[in-house]
Write a structure and sequence with these properties.
Elements lengths: L41 H20 L25 E7 L1 H4 L7 H13 L3 E3 L28 E2 L5 H15 L3 E5 L2 H5 L4 H18 L4 E5 L10 H22 L6 E4 L7 H4 L8 H16 L26 E6 L2 E6 L7 E10 L6 E2 L4 E2 L6 E5 L7 E10 L2 E2 L6 E4 L11 E3 L5 E4 L7 E8 L1 E2 L14 E2 L13 E6 L4 E3 L7 E10 L2 E5 L3 E4 L3
Parallel strand pairs: 1-2, 1-3, 1-4, 4-5, 5-6
Antiparallel strand pairs: 7-8, 8-12, 9-10, 9-11, 9-13, 13-14, 13-15, 16-17, 17-22, 18-21, 18-23, 19-20, 23-24, 23-25
Helix pairs in contact: 3-9, 4-6, 6-7
Length: 527
């Protein structure tokens, strides 16, 4: 690993000036060249004097070119070459580079491309290996897939100046050949400007080169934000920063230390590629990784460009919640599941299976991820006697992930009691009954009575003599039919169904759960 000083790779800002006098020309530094007459005589003296005059003019005012000012110095081309053996890559940045629990991270996707798809001999290096634990329980790195080289130098919430404070020691300790930097959005969130952030990027590269003047650098553009209280200002600073970044790379490129730009914001949509206001989801990770892969493969000649078109990748947490029914009482069911890595909230979907199947609906209450322990939620206002199925879907921000498998629960409850009394009202027009606090509605059952023909003396008549068909109630006895359902009231207009007499039974219901039946009430038509 080279340990050259910044003067060997500082780019335009640090190129050496005109070289000093070469002692091999036989003239001491600071002496004026001596002109001696040659055998040519005075003509030779005149020619020598003319040459000396032109030499002095060129020394003090530069090369003479008629017709315009001297051309600008040609910029150095940012070209690099992979080292012999393993290429050591250090990713430096903020939360976008670090990632949070449940993320793959763009570092993962870049590693998979370089190591597995391209077969490049690479190692990621740095002082850290984890992501931010959104759950706060310290349960390990928390990657969606931990099978990659996790080392990095990214810090959640860091501004560029904060990263610059540690970069010298980090480069000296971990000796990367490539430094991949993506940072700056936190500078703008905290009131900073694009010019200041760009100057801090320059300082970071300079500081890194103190430890290694041959470092090859890739500067990532900042991706846009959406949904913050200050989108317009933040995205204006992002655009200004990204527009100026190629000039920074050109200025900082040195003979042994190229600096290039990864077009990470090209085609990036904050609405589709972020899981919250700022941080990339799986689609965003892929776009960022592809841009860095392209930058490494292009002028730096490491690996190969990322294949296009980019593949479709699912977003949101990809671990299914394992849901169980933890309890049931009355019209309430308690659902429980273990926290899903990366989930910030959960959605519960409900559908009635039987009776009367309905459509699946999203319940209005969203469940938040707890700090520790299992996730639980209580679903209430369920209908007694019904069977339901539930599905839980985890979300990270606004991205929904894989749904759980369905879990079913039957709402089992004690049946409501029968009305304490049932009778025909005084007008003999309505059947009325006592209130039942736990009942939601009542069902009226009817069957005809067995009636004999009425008999009477001359000029008179008598009521028909009627009796029940048997001593059994609805469900067991002969001839019972459901005559009507009463909800919100406790009276029913008497209707014998065309028979001369009938008996009626009132059954209490709570939703789909039938309760107890009251004693039968008989009714016979009067002539």
């Amino acid at each position: 690993m080279s340990t050259s000083t910044p003067s060997s790779g500082e780019g335009r800002e640090g190129r050496k000036g005109p070289k000093g006098h070469d002692p091999r020309d036989g003239t001491a530094a600071g002496e004026r060249p001596q002109v001696r007459p040659s055998p040519l005589g005075l003509a030779g003296v005149a020619l020598a004097a003319m040459f000396l005059t032109l030499l002095l003019i060129q020394t003090f005012i530069g090369t003479f070119r008629p017709g315009g000012p001297p051309p600008e110095e040609e910029p150095l081309l940012a070209t690099g070459s992979p080292p012999e053996g393993t290429a050591r890559i250090m990713v430096v940045g903020d939360s976008i580079a670090q990632g949070s629990s449940g993320d793959y991270t763009w570092r993962y996707r870049l590693w998979k491309h370089l190591d597995e798809d391209v077969g490049a001999d690479v190692a990621f290096v740095g002082p850290y290996n984890g992501v931010l634990d959104l759950g706060g329980d310290g349960g390990g790195p928390g990657y969606a897939d931990p099978d990659f080289d996790q080392r990095h130098a990214a810090v959640w919430g860091a501004q560029v100046k904060r990263l610059e404070e540690d970069i010298g020691e980090q480069v000296a300790e971990y000796e990367p050949h490539y430094l991949l930097l993506m940072a700056g959005i936190n500078d703008f969130v905290n009131g900073g400007t694009a010019p200041q952030a760009l100057e801090d990027v320059r300082d970071l590269v300079r500081t890194a080169r103190v430890a290694d003047g041959d470092l090859q650098v890739v500067l990532g553009e900042i991706t846009p934000v959406r949904g913050t209280p200050d989108d317009e200002r933040l995205n204006a600073q992002v655009a200004e920063f990204n527009m100026a970044l190629p000039r920074v790379a050109e200025d900082m490129t040195g003979e042994d230390s190229p600096v290039v730009v990864a077009r990470t914001s090209d085609g990036y949509s904050a609405a589709d590629d972020n899981w919250d206001t700022t941080h990339p989801n799986a689609r965003g990770e892929l776009k960022i990784a592809a841009a860095f892969a392209d930058a490494l493969a292009g002028p730096l000649r490491l690996g190969a460009p990322y294949p296009r078109p980019l593949p479709d990748v699912p977003v949101g947490p990809q671990t299914r919640p394992k849901v169980s029914v933890a309890g049931q009482e009355g019209d309430r069911v308690v659902l429980s599941w273990d926290p899903v890595p990366g989930a910030t909230r959960y959605q519960v979907l409900q559908r009635r299976l039987r009776p009367d199947p309905d459509e699946q609906v999203v319940l209005p209450t969203e469940v938040m991820q707890p700090g520790e322990g299992p996730v639980t939620t209580e679903v209430d206002h369920l209908l007694s006697g019904a069977t339901y199925e539930f599905v839980v879907r985890p979300f990270k921000g606004h991205d929904g992930g894989r749904r759980s498998r369905t879990v079913t629960a039957a709402v089992v409850d004690d049946p409501p009691p029968a009305p304490r009394w049932v009778r025909i009202d005084e007008e003999r027009t309505h059947l009325v009954w006592a209130a039942v606090p736990d009942a939601t509605h009542f069902e009226v059952w009817r069957r005809p009575l067995r009636c004999a023909e009425p008999s009477g003396g001359a000029g008179g008549s008598a009521a028909a003599e009627c009796e029940p068909l048997d001593d059994e109630g609805p469900g067991d006895g002969e001839g019972w039919t459901s005559a009507g359902v009463v909800s919100g009231d406790r009276r029913w207009a008497v209707d014998t169904g065309g028979a001369r007499g009938a008996e009626f039974v009132v059954v209490s219901h709570r939703h789909y759960l039938p309760g107890e039946a009251a004693a039968p009430v008989e009714f016979a038509e009067e002539d």
